[in-house]
Specification:
This protein is an alpha/beta fold. Helices cover about 45% and strands about 20% of the residues. The strands form 2 sheets. Strands 1, 2, 3, 4, 5, 6, 7, 8 and 9 form a 9-stranded mixed beta sheet that branches. Strands 10, 11, 12, 13 and 14 form a 5-stranded antiparallel beta sheet that branches. The protein is globular, with a radius of gyration of 28 Å.
């Protein structure tokens, strides 16, 4: 019995040694990252991670919002909240006059051709009148009827119940891109264009409370400005504002020389009726920008296209009078300044991202909801962060699929192309694999030279 147990222990020892040798050989066979893109951070917090965990409104803001909603006693609040949420999400851009005219001419031509084929003894004036009426009828039936959103005090409260938490989550997530990547940025002034309930002020304050000294909120809606001020005072008229140095205006500052460190327009450009006016608004906001311009819209096709219009305006066009000659550069989310590959191809899915958040605790609201949004950050500062040499950063544009020993990543790359890559430790290095496994939709992923070569060979 003793000899048998001795033989068994020897075999176990040998098996353990063999396993260790195999493990070392496997590690040696895997390519190791030659570039220190981690900068001393653990893989779960690598420099490309900008996603946030489930966001919750600041306690003071949530308390004030609940007090305002409760005291308003809005009838059928839950029903009206759902209805407004669906309306805002489904809103499209207004159809341009040029597009409408082209459609009318094409339709009229088609109807005339059909009429001429059946032509007999027809009164041309009566036919022309009939065709005109049919064209108008068809255009009314098939054209999206855009109308501006207007809020009084009661509808403003409904908007608060529907969009306060979601809007805050989207803006806070977009601002985190700057906070995480540009550690030296400490804005002293903020301009919020189309400020609504003031969620941008609260989101900015949560990032840079120590440095912000002046926050200007511009919104043409008087009732919205009143609600925003009530939120700042905790729904107590006699109280001091919870965030100081916030000023409300109905119009932008006139002087082109007045600039702000941070300029934000959240869910605002989609409320401007046509391309020309949106272009003028974007130029105006850029004139006011000293460091960063942040634009946020719904994560729909129209929201994404509005942001790409703004991107093209600032990258490809120039105003007649330039007050600040520093050019615009794309800071996020695009890793390049080429045409958006989602618009260039046949893809119908917009470039959007998502953020988990806790909604206001009201009837009909779930414990957690998802805010789907698109955003664009433009910078006057150029490359604000010290990028590691030999590393490019691609943007993850879809959920990361984690499988056994491999990870599926869909990325927008620095060459302006969309790539689907299967990342493994054996092919791409253990560091790269662990970073990919720790990343998620919206984060950036480090792409070294070896990684790029492997992506190219996979695509071929």
């Amino acid at each position: 019995m003793a000899s048998r147990s001795y033989s068994a222990s020897v075999l176990c020892q040998r098996a353990g040694v063999l396993k260790m040798m195999c493990r070392r050989m496997s590690t040696a066979a895997q390519p190791q990252s030659q570039v220190d893109f981690l900068k001393g951070e653990p893989h779960k917090k690598h420099p490309g991670v900008t996603n946030l965990k489930t966001l919750r409104l600041p306690e003071e803001l949530q308390t004030a919002a609940r007090s305002i909603i409760h005291s308003a006693q809005v009838l059928r609040l839950t029903e009206r909240t759902h209805k407004l949420t669906n309306l805002l999400w489904s809103r499209k851009r207004a159809v341009e006059d040029v597009t409408l005219r082209k459609k009318a001419v094409s339709l009229e031509k088609e109807l005339w051709e059909k009429a001429m084929e059946k032509r007999g003894d027809i009164d041309e004036e009566a036919l022309e009148d009939r065709i005109r009426r049919k064209v108008f009828s068809e255009l009314r039936r098939t054209t999206y009827h855009w109308t501006p959103m207007k809020y009084d005090e009661e509808s403003g409260v409904v908007y608060m119940a529907a969009r306060l938490a979601g809007g805050y989550a989207a803006v806070r997530r977009a601002l985190n891109e700057i906070k995480k990547r540009d550690l030296s940025f400490a804005p002293q002034s903020l301009l919020d264009f189309g400020s609504g309930l003031g969620t941008v002020v609260w989101a900015s304050h949560s990032c840079w409370a120590g440095s912000l000294k002046e926050m200007v909120c511009v919104d043409s809606s008087g009732p919205m400005n009143i609600l925003a001020e009530r939120l700042l005072k905790g729904d107590d008229e006699r109280a001091q504002p919870l965030i100081k140095h916030v000023y409300f205006r109905q119009f932008l500052p006139v002087s082109p020389k007045v600039q702000f460190d941070l300029v934000v327009a959240a869910f605002t450009l989609s409320e401007i009726p046509n391309v020309k006016e949106r272009e003028e608004a974007v130029f105006t906001l850029w004139r006011k920008t000293s460091s960063y311009l942040v634009l946020v819209e719904n994560g729909t096709k129209d929201g994404h296209q509005i942001l790409m219009e703004a991107r093209d305006t600032l990258l490809k066009k120039q105003e007649k009078t330039v007050h600040d000659s520093r050019p615009a550069s794309v800071f996020a989310p695009c890793p390049h300044e080429l045409m958006c590959p989602k618009l260039a191809g046949k893809l119908t899915v917009p470039c959007n991202f998502q953020q988990l958040y806790q909604p206001l605790p009201l009837p009909g609201h779930n414990d957690r909801q998802i805010e789907k949004f698109s955003y664009l950050i433009l910078s006057r500062c150029g490359a604000a962060e010290a990028e590691t040499e030999g590393v490019d950063w691609a943007r993850l544009i879809a959920p990361v699929l984690r499988r056994t020993r491999h990870v599926h990543c869909q990325m927008c790359c620095t060459d302006g192309q969309l790539q689907h890559t299967v990342v493994t430790a054996r092919k791409h290095s253990r560091d790269m694999y662990r970073c990919a496994r720790s990343s998620d939709w919206g984060d950036r992923l480090p792409v070294t030279q070896n990684f790029q070569e492997d992506v190219q060979s996979d695509s071929e």
